[in-house]
Amino acid sequence: MTKIKNGLYVVATPIGNLGDISARALEVLTAVDKIACEDTRVTGKLLSRFSINTSMMAYHDHNAGKVRPGLLADLKKGAAIALVSDAGLPAISDPGYKLIQACVEDNISLTVLPGANAALTGLVQSGLPTERFLFQGYLPAKSGARLSELKELSGIPATLIFYENGKRLAKSLGDMASVLGDRHAAVARELTKLHEEVRRGSLSGLAVVYGAEGAPKGEIVVVVAPPEPPPPPVELELEVMLAGRLGHLSVKDAASEVAQITKLPRKTLYGMALRLQRELDGEHEDDDGTG
Is the Cβ–Cβ distance between 54 and 29 less than 8 Å? Predict the structure, then answer.
């Protein structure tokens, strides 16, 4: 194969099914000078499956600070290095982003090869809204910190995506139900693998199920539906909102402002505001003794 150009190649690897590796990823993993990976044993199985003999070196949470300077030095000398995680797209919940950030700062060539990702696969599998979502990753292990973090997320109008440990799953689901409300959710486990499983239900119901069954094995993605939108204001609330604005805004502007807040039709609110304005004008005439 032709010598690959120097730089860092961020390569997505399968999250379970090895058939999800891309042809481009295999080409790059074969052609680079070395592969930086979380666990050489895990990546070694992938390379062996496709008869790739490229040398590997460990790059993970525990050694990243020591290893990163050497990787950057090699890249500056013209090396081509691939960065992979144990599964999925590197830099998502792993130290890869710091190496990527350093490459950007040092103007080192950076190429990302897209591919499998557990969070997005779980989101699509969940059947929950996908137009707006937030990936939170792992919640804190201790309940107090977990509850505090969930409280910060409770008002975000988006589907929430978490990674979770099997031993903490039932407790985490229970904490989610207590803080976020009993929303619809899905627990996706062992995605793309032989024993792939996706369970859907309420947060409280899923917490009961996994509490009774015990800790499940495998990689776990929890997807939680966004909060329900608040009910539209009743007529009396709308009148109060409009009346408070009619003292300093025109009928048109008062209706427009309330429409923007409530997402209700401006035409409907304009009619309500016009009626209120007439009533207010009538009260003022009575006060003057001219009515």
Answer: yes
